[in-house]
Specification:
Blueprint (H helix, E strand, L loop, with lengths): L6 E6 L5 H17 L3 E4 L6 H9 L2 E4 L11 E4 L6 H9 L3 E4 L3 H15 L3 E5 L5 H7 L7 E4 L2 H5 L9 E5 L5 H14 L13 H14 L4 E5 L5 H12 L3 E5 L7 H4 L4 E6 L5 H14 L3 E6 L11 H11 L1
């Protein structure tokens, strides 16, 4: 067996953000209040472990709203947000919906609606096929919003009126890469306007900052998160860009021996949808191998909290009343 690392560094902040915490609690409360099954459109958050635990408690995850969901069923929309067409479909089907969209994603939706109403063509920086992107693009009439992922995409843009152009971003992107894309947009379209404050969420920014600083002291950085988690994948990119070997894992069982060869200091972080228990399991895995030194690498502290959706708060209050 490969020798154990001498030291583990734990990035702080890491793991659950306020939006994920709110979304997971929303499904848990819905199950408590209404009993199973509670239907959830898409994965409530992009983490296999969390989805599996909720499924065991009676949540039924569906890709789309369809006839398999009975009329009147309690149905939760995921943290990534949905388009108005999905809301309309749910209403037509008579579903009792609870919207667990992260408030920071809702902010992007509102910005898209406002820019479109003001006659702007919107350039959305994001990843094609991501649920958050689909929800945001669904807020705007077809042809009024275009998606770009890279600086090269910006170079290929053809905009009808270059004087009326705005940009928005997916909330879970790489801070550094997005900055470069925005800079290219400003070069090509000097009059481009954007949101008053950055769309990339505080948690994505903070987790990338912590990894960037920690990676310089690590031989290997392990990021706990699922493959479809955008912000988790970005943490791997950030660690590698800072000079450390880095890999994305769902849990401790996916750690490979060859990664540990020569790894004296191993950094650990987790994406915004990965629960802390997975971090603790990874620490226990290394302790069992003989690692004794475990240190927090704290860059900053977060104190952001979001209230649960109004329908949940009202139902809880009604029960207590």
């Amino acid at each position: 067996m490969t020798p154990a690392p001498e030291k583990l560094l734990l990035a702080a902040p890491r793991g659950y953000c306020a939006g994920v915490d709110r979304a997971v609690q929303t499904v848990e409360r819905a199950l408590e209040l209404h009993g199973p099954p509670v239907y959830v459109r898409k994965e409530i958050v992009h983490n296999k472990h969390v989805v599996q635990q909720l499924a065991e408690r009676g949540a039924i995850f569906v890709e789309e709203l369809d006839d398999a969901i009975p009329e009147g069923a309690v149905t939760v929309f995921s943290a990534h947000g949905v388009s108005p067409a999905v809301h309309a479909d749910a209403e037509r089907r008579g579903l009792r919906t609870i919207d667990a969209t992260c408030p920071l994603v809702t902010k992007v939706h509102k910005e898209a609606i406002k820019f479109a109403a003001d006659g702007y063509t919107i350039v959305l920086i994001g990843h094609e096929g991501h649920e958050e992107v689909e929800g945001t693009m669904g807020e705007v009439p077809e042809g009024r919003i275009v998606l770009v992922e890279t600086e090269h995409d910006v170079d290929a843009l053809e905009i009808e009126d270059p004087e009326r152009i705005a940009f928005l971003t997916q909330t879970t992107l790489s801070v550094d890469e997005t900055r470069a894309v925005i800079a290219r947009l400003r070069e090509r379209f000097p009059t481009i306007t954007g949101p008053r404050t950055d769309d990339i969420c505080y948690a994505t920014t903070n987790r990338q900052l912590a990894v960037k600083q920690m990676a310089g002291e690590c031989d290997l950085v392990l990021v706990i998160g699922s493959r479809n988690s955008s912000n988790s994948n970005r943490l791997v990119d950030v660690a590698r860009a800072a000079g450390a070997e880095s890999h994305l894992i769902d849990n401790e069982a996916q750690v490979r021996e060859e990664w540990l060869a020569g790894a004296r200091v191993v950094g650990i972080t987790s994406g915004a949808s990965a629960p802390e228990e997975l971090v603790q399991r990874l620490i226990d895995f290394f302790r069992a191998r003989g690692t004794q030194v475990v240190e927090e690498f704290e860059v900053l502290r977060e104190d952001v909290r979001f209230m649960l959706p109004k329908v949940i708060r009202q139902a809880v209050a009604g029960r207590q009343g």
